[in-house]
Amino acid sequence: MSDIKQELYNQCVAYVQARMAAAEDAYKDAEKASNDDTKSSAGDKYETGRAMMQQEKDRNTIQVNEANKLMVALTGISIKGNSDTVDTGSVVITDNGKFYIAISAGTLKVDDENYFAVSAAAPIVIKMLGKKAGEEFDVNGKSYKILEVL
Considering the entire predicted model, what is its pTM? Predict the structure, then answer.
């Protein structure tokens, strides 16, 4: 079962790396566009274009920083062994879905099974933290029963 954790962890790392690469590429594109913009007789147009490119660079810098935070969060997750109780790094099998508690990375697929990669700060995770197999919890009027914790 630790193979599932390893694969989910690897997919989360790949997700973060892809986000970082996309943000870095967009930053470079905005920087290149800003540097290629030449001053024309319409000075205001030039200044507006440069300001827009700076805003784009700032947005992409924020995205890179957010991706770095996600990577730091991932490095603190153990993929070794199983726990009896739900905690960060757990794979939680419920009667209404399978969850990997790590970072918010959407739906991941392992062995033709879907797992929802969710942050420990997600409302559903807050409800299940510390619970064991056999226990139940409700989120937004929907009941969940924990079948297994890996």
Answer: 0.84
